[in-house]
Amino acid sequence: MIARFEDTRDIRLLGAYQPGNDAELDQAVRQIPLIYDALTQSPNDPRSTDPFTDLAMKLKAGEPVQ
User: Fold this and answer.
1) pLDDT at position 11, please?
2) CB 29 within 8 A of CB 4
3) Is the separation of the CB atoms in 65 and 55 below 8 Å?
4) Is the per-residue pLDDT at 66 higher than 70?
5) Are 55 and 35 in contact (CB under 8 A)?
6) Mean pLDDT over residues 26-32, rounded?
7) Measured between alpha carbons, how far is 5 from 59 in angstroms, rounded to an integer?
8) For position 65, what pLDDT does the model report?
9) How far apart are CA 52 and CA 38, in angstroms?
10) Would you place residue 63 in the very low, low, confident or very high pLDDT band (cuts 50, 70, 90)?
11) What rounded mean pLDDT belongs to the chain?
């Protein structure tokens, strides 16, 4: 899914991406930014006791991952 998201970067940046034409790409566009956000960590962020569950819950809710 990450490869699909990155392979279509130019299309998305040019504004040629149209939601609804490709279900796999639509899913990637929704979820990959959340995954990238989850992988970002600063020294002051609290440690998660179960990062996989935290990520799964955020993806299910469609919320930005903290």
Assistant:
1) 92
2) no
3) yes
4) no
5) yes
6) 91
7) 16
8) 47
9) 10
10) low
11) 84
Confirm if 17 and 29 have CB atoms less than 8 A apart. Answer: yes
Give the pLDDT mean for 9-36: 91
- Considering only CA atoms, give the Rg of the chain: 14
Which one-letter DSSP state was computed for residue 21? Answer: S
Q: What is the pTM of this model?
A: 0.65
- Interacting residues of 47 by C-beta distance below 8 A, sequence separation 6+: none
Q: What are the structure tokens assigned to 43, written together?
A: 């020294």
Residue burial 40-49, b: 16+ Cβ < 10 Å; e: rest: eeeeeeeeee
> Cα–Cα distance between 27 and 20 in angstroms, integer?
10
Residues 6 or more apart in contact with residue 49 via CB below 8 angstroms: none
Q: E strands within 1-66?
A: none
